[in-house]
Design goal:
Blueprint lengths: L3 H10 L14 H12 L3 H16 L9 H4 E3 L5 E3 L5 H16 L3 E6 L26 H20 L7 E5 L4 H10 L10 E5 L2 E3 L1 E2 L6 E3 L2 E2 L1 E3 L5 H7 L2 H8 L3 E6 L10 H9 L4 E7 L9 E5 L2 E5 L6 H5 L11 E10 H11 L6 E5 L3 E2 L5 E2 L6 E5 L12 E5 L2 H4 L14 H18 L3 E3 L22 E3 L11 H4 L3 E3 L2 E3 L1 H8 L1
Parallel strand pairs: 2-20, 3-4, 3-11, 4-5, 12-20, 21-23, 22-24
Antiparallel strand pairs: 1-13, 6-10, 7-19, 8-9, 11-15, 12-15, 13-14, 16-19, 17-18
Helix pairs in contact: 5-6, 5-10, 8-12
The chain binds 2-acetamido-2-deoxy-1-O-phosphono-alpha-D-glucopyranose.
2-acetamido-2-deoxy-1-O-phosphono-alpha-D-glucopyranose binds next to strand 15.
């Protein structure tokens, strides 16, 4: 930790000496905490950060030729691999490859979980949320059980025990509650040494005059550095070394809120490995022009995601001759990276990542120490995005999957039209209902009458039966026929391991 004098000199250099305005009001503990916070702020970096924020927010506007819509082009269809575009045998080959890599301990998953869940409106990390399934499982439990199952599938097929380590990037907001939650839930049956949490950095919000803000007398207003803070956090926390020690070669990186996420998806991993990719993105067909998903495309000839907050509205509306959205490769925040690629990016390029700007209302202390809650944006928050490293890839691939099977994110509280606990719950239950029907089950209501099978269930309606299948029984619909074929099942039905045992007999 630095001394007060050192802090003062550093802040003078960075033009931020006002931050010590209330120093004499602080008690010893607050002073120490503040000095600890200040000691990680390098004065030159801080100065660059503030200048960069102002320039990014209010700098020169791009000319017409430089503008995004002039430079954007869709991914040529022949460059997109995927579930709809491939036959069963090819898909099986990719899956086999993925399972083989998993069985050799070469695959890990990495969760981006530093966000505050502001839109969902809960004061705890999103992964701890339960969307109201019959089993009451939280997102974290579902994800953990999918890891356990995919490990088991690979171990059974190749005859040796294997591990898919789970790296979890948290932030100042989410580390402590996430750790506690995992401990209290005994790591959901995973080996604790294979669940590795680390923290991304926080960076200061910058007021429109280039100054930092105090949120308390001894605390600067900070925010996580975006999910692209991953690369710096990998270095800060020696995560790449841990991967190397374990022999991990391939990473499946995903964000916490998609209830249908296929953890360490063998098909996606196998596809990327077989194509020799160093970096890949899973996409779904974008549903409508305003859908809040980024689009994978090329900008100036280079692969990139253009985020929903940055794509010009008219560009998002463009359609091809067949009437489909021109920019339809919707990013579902499921990425593939080789460890080599991550090392290269983290070591050589993390400083070059674009800073994205958001103008936000950031509460601050005024000169008299009173907390002001602004009614309009007053500060710039800078964020890096995880996908901004695609440009450094030597072999980038895109993999399209079916939305109803793999993408239903939890972003908003119930009451919103899209991406709520209700839509997430319905997506999962509809999927499990489809799996059960495909395995040959018949559903009965409480009166013992057959419920006629329904297909094409939308997120606006509940499936006709309540059927939830534990990931410990089936990872993605497999192995259900021996349990369910020609069985008459009464809704609600929870197929967990105990129920599976009963059905076997
Ligand atoms: C920076 C970043 O990763 N943005 C992602 C991410 O958006 P959020 O709104 O930040 O959750 O998830 C979306 C999919 O749910 C994806 O479409 C988008 O591009």
């Amino acid at each position: 930790m630095i001394t007060f004098e050192e802090a003062r000199t550093r802040l003078d250099t960075a033009g931020q000496s006002h931050l010590l305005r209330f120093w004499t009001d602080l008690n010893e503990e607050e002073k120490n905490r503040f000095l600890t916070e200040l000691s990680v702020l390098d004065p030159e970096e801080l100065q660059d950060h503030c200048k960069g924020a102002i320039k990014a927010a209010f700098g020169r506007q791009l000319s017409a030729e430089e503008s995004l819509d002039q430079l954007m082009e869709p991914v040529p269809p022949e460059f997109i691999g995927g579930v709809k575009r491939s036959d069963q045998q090819t898909l099986q080959e990719w899956e086999n490859e993925g399972i083989l890599q998993i069985s050799q301990n070469k695959v890990a998953v990495l969760l981006l979980a530093g966000g505050q869940g502001t839109r969902l409106g809960v004061p705890y990390p999103k992964g701890m949320y339960s969307v109201g399934l019959p089993s009451k499982k939280t997102l974290y439990r579902i994800q953990a059980e999918r890891i356990r199952k995919v490990q088991e599938l690979a171990a059974t097929k190749h005859g040796s025990k294997c591990t898919v380590p789970w790296y979890i990037m948290t932030s100042e907001f989410t580390l402590e509650p996430t750790e506690r939650f995992f401990r209290e839930n005994r790591y959901f049956g995973l080996e604790p040494s294979n669940v590795l949490m680390f923290e991304q950095r926080m960076i200061p919000a910058v007021a429109y005059d280039g100054k930092l803000l105090l949120e308390q007398k001894g605390k600067i207003a900070m925010a996580p550095d975006g999910n692209g803070g991953l690369y710096r956090a990998l270095l800060d926390n020696q995560v790449l070394e841990d991967m190397e020690r374990r022999g991990v070669e391939y990473l499946h990186v995903y964000c916490v809120d998609n209830i249908l996420v296929k953890m360490a998806d063998p098909v996606f991993i196998g596809f990327c490995v077989k194509k020799g990719a160093d970096c890949g993105a899973k996409v779904v067909e974008k549903a409508f022009p305003e859908e809040p998903v980024g689009v994978v495309c090329r900008v100036g000839g280079v692969y990139q995601v253009v985020e929903y907050s940055e794509i010009p509205a008219e560009t998002a509306q463009l359609r091809n001759a067949a009437g489909e959205l021109l920019y339809s490769a919707g990013n579902i925040c499921n990425h593939f990276f080789t460890r080599d690629f991550l090392c290269n990016v983290a070591q050589s390029f993390h400083r070059e990542l674009k800073q994205h700007v958001a103008l936000k209302k950031v509460p601050f202390l005024d000169e008299d120490g009173n907390l002001v809650k602004p009614t309009k944006p007053n500060a710039i928050k800078m964020e890096k995005y995880v996908f901004d490293v695609f440009q450094f890839s030597k072999k980038f691939v895109v993999f399209e999957v079916l939305r109803e099977e793999e993408f239903s994110p939890l972003k908003n509280a119930d009451g919103a039209r899209l991406d709520t606990p209700t839509t997430a719950r319905r997506s999962l239950l509809a999927q499990h209902y489809r799996w059960a029907l495909a395995a040959g089950a018949h559903f009965l209501n409480r009166q013992g009458e057959i419920i006629q099978p329904t297909s094409g269930i939308s997120q606006d309606e509940d499936p006709p039966v309540l059927c939830e299948i534990s990931p410990l029984v089936s990872y993605f619909g497999e192995a259900l026929e021996p349990l369910l074929k020609n069985k008459s099942i009464t809704s609600p039905f929870i197929l967990d391991e105990t129920e599976a045992e009963k059905l076997k007999n």
